[in-house]
């Protein structure tokens, strides 16, 4: 903003002028549109993005093929596309993320497991780093590896059984690091499913499932993480089971 003010003079830098001066001399800036105070606001970002898409969609060559409806959501952008001829509906959800420097870590608009989360809170997400690890496995493993099929089926089996998809993904990631990749061929599919079930039972008995990235010093270099991640103490994803015996009994 400083550079633009100095070179073009068509806007005032919102970091070095008072709000009163800004409001008198120009339209609201993106700082005012997207932020609460000096913090990026998830809900304002979602509202602004929805408005932009609605305007742009009408100008696209596919606008007459689909009816677009933005669904209510405070921390993500949800869209329903309805085929104008068949009536078929497709739902799309888009999460917003801010990359932390050049790391494979993002601040995400996704809700964390909290009772209340202010709209200016962006929890840290490791999803991009975990995806890069899966890509690393895909390049290293044989073409007929069954690890993704195991993940999909196992997640489908355990849906609505008090296990988060993140915990299931973490189980698969740990087993990929333990079991040699040549033993993930399609003919080993049932054996790997059995390993997943036994590993889950082991973790439940001990009430312990460590986060895959924190404290993992054997991550490949292509997964870019801060040094503190590799040397950190492991984070137990099943810690809540230690504090809630009833939840632990249900999980068993």
Automatic annotation (TrEMBL):
It holds the Pfam family Mab-21_C. It is a single-pass type I membrane protein. Its main location: membrane. The keyword Secreted does not apply. This is Mab-21-like HhH/H2TH-like domain-containing protein. GO terms for cellular component: membrane. The keyword Membrane applies. Gene3D superfamilies: 1.10.1410.40.
């Amino acid at each position: 903003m400083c550079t633009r003010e100095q070179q073009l003079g068509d806007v005032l830098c919102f970091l070095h002028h008072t709000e009163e001066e800004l409001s008198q001399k120009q339209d609201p800036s993106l700082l005012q549109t997207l932020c609460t105070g000096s913090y990026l606001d998830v809900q304002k970002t979602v509202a602004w993005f929805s408005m932009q898409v609605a305007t742009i969609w009408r100008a696209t060559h596919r606008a007459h093929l689909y009816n677009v409806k933005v669904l209510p959501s405070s921390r993500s952008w949800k869209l329903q596309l309805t085929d104008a001829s068949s009536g078929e509906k497709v739902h799309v959800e888009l999460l917003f993320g801010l990359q932390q420097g050049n790391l494979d870590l993002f601040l995400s608009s996704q809700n964390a497991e909290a009772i209340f989360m202010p709209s200016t809170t962006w929890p840290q997400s490791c999803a991009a780093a975990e995806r890069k690890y899966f890509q690393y496995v895909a390049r290293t493993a044989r073409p007929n590896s069954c690890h993704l099929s195991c993940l999909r089926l196992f997640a489908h089996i355990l849906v609505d059984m008090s296990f988060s998809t993140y915990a299931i993904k973490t189980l698969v990631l740990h087993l990929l690091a333990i079991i040699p990749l040549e033993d993930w061929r399609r003919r080993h599919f049932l054996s790997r499913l059995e390993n997943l079930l036994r590993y889950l039972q082991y973790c439940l008995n001990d009430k312990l499932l460590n986060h895959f990235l924190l404290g993992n010093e054997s991550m490949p270099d292509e997964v870019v993480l801060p040094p503190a991640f590799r040397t950190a103490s492991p984070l137990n994803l099943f810690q809540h089971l230690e504090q809630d015996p009833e939840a632990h009994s249900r999980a068993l």
